[in-house]
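User: structure tokens for this one?
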Amino acid sequence: MSFKASYTLAASLLASATVIAPVSAQEADQDAPEDTEIVVVGQGLPDTPSVPAYATRTLEREAIITAPSGRIEDALGSVAGFQQFRRSDSRSSNPSAQGVTLRALGGNATSRALVTLDGVPMADPFFGYTPFAALIPEQLDRIRVTRGGGSGPFGAGALAGTIALESAGLDQLGSVNASLLANDRGATEAAATLAAPLGGGYVVASGRWDRGQGFFTTPEDQRAPLSARAAFDSRSGQIRAAIPIGDTYEVQARLLAFEDNRTLRFDGADSSASGQDASIRVVGRGAWEVDALAYVQARNFSNIVISSTRFVKVLDQRNTPSTGLGGKLEVRPPVGADHVLRLGVDYRRSDGELQEEAFSAFTTNLRARRRAGGTTSDLGLFVEHDWTRGPLVLTGGVRADRTVISDGFFRESDAAGVVVIDNQFSGRSDWTVTGRGGVLFKASDALSLRAAVYSGLRLPTLNELYRPFVVFPVFTSANALLENEKLVGYEAGLDWRPAEGVELTVTAFDNRLKNAIANVSLTPTDRQRQNLPAIDAQGLELGAKLERGPWRFNGTVAYTDAAVDGEGASVALDGNRPPQTPQWAASATLGFEPREGLMLAATLRHVGAQFESDSETDRLPPATTLGAFASIPVTARLGIVLRAENIFDETIVTRNSAGAIDLGVPRTLWGGIRYGF
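Assistant:
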């Protein structure tokens, strides 16, 4: 289904789905007193008292929309400890490599952190990556990042933490907003939002289109005649409605469609990611608080691999359809003013199938057709209780997850259609109990002390279980016997507010990730996805926020000492640092807003050295970049926007495979206009 067709269908479905809600709201209004005010915030249930007991950092709307690149992953980079598998963003990386993790736990392009949009998990059902190009920064109110494993809804995916994106409402968005920017390489970025009251609530329609020829990711001395710029063309649109039903209930509905096309390294090396998501949520804020959610996601991915030596097509991953569906029900019964009790159940199911053809690099003839896929599911039951006793908050929660892996297969046939491999993998299921607990002590109005322990789990993705791949000359095989990853950790910290507008945070943590899934080197050209015995990560996170008049400062620093515990078969890796894992990460943003509409910001980022693989032979040097943002009002509704990425043109190495280098974004200058009221 094309982007245009899927978005048209999405709009039609939302219009149908919201017909009943305004009528119900109007009927409720007729019975309510004239002075009754119904407030619709378009969000979930209020935060529980336990939130400050964990290492949490919140990015407000201002920090999100002033990112130098204008992208959500760039805004998240201001939280030290946030990390994608590659240093490149969603314009110049393969979509399937955009796994997200926290606290330098390493990874293999699959997300170890749970990313949600208004409560809906966003990870791709087949690969587990986060489709950042589908997410529109201008539509967000805030992002809350909680580091450390967690329970609660969808806790089985929150192995390294949770990144909760929350949409902005009518008050923040206004009725009309639009922007158009271009950069010094001819790329453009266009976004628009229309918002209007509806049935006592509101409806928002928004879209964004980014396109450009990109830059050369290959260093000049390594380019070949067919080396290409990292061209990108991504479109995303959504319709979201929040409508009250009576005095205490609210219905939220969203339809989202996106299409993301990229070219990497060589002409013809094209990839495409697309999706259509739908969700509906009912939030009840009465004596019995309720949060009920259901969603369905249809995703697809394609990718063409070009030989780096003969520059012909060697692999066509032409189709990877996948489906994700799930939901949750959370209830908070009235148990007293000093208690918050959460009871709930959630469910997630993913299924998908890889369809690809392999070609000879010498004859260009078809060599093989491959199909691979399966199904995974997770049914979780959870309970969590917060108890407030004066300055003390105690919290504890437990989850029981029934995980199922089934219908796995890998099939390969030759050019004549003769099946040469036909593997059918046995299904398996298991129950796993995880939990978390924490304590928050408000020693004074200025100082809070906190400590927490937690455990978590993550299922292998269908990609890890069943899909082999080649990045020449290295072949990585799948592993249908992979076990669930399990994390156990603890942390302690403090939050200190010595003066108004000043906040300092310190957190020390120790995490152990058992059965860590990694691409393990067997020979210089062969790898396999395996469960490592464990990855140990200990570290320190520092944060500072300062607001003084028109000035604001936001800074974070993370130091992580991470190492592979290689007892047993992986003893050769024992003590090695996990791939793509820096010891140091830091970010600092200084903003200045002397009057309404005039905003200036500069962001300094540092990422320490990393290794490309588990062998620690291919090093990615550290990189320090400076970016800037400026919004200058011309009239009450019209303003000029200027952005600058990597101002000093720092060399950012994003991949190093035996000396074959890929680079991140060079100096890039943006300018344009923004209109809104």
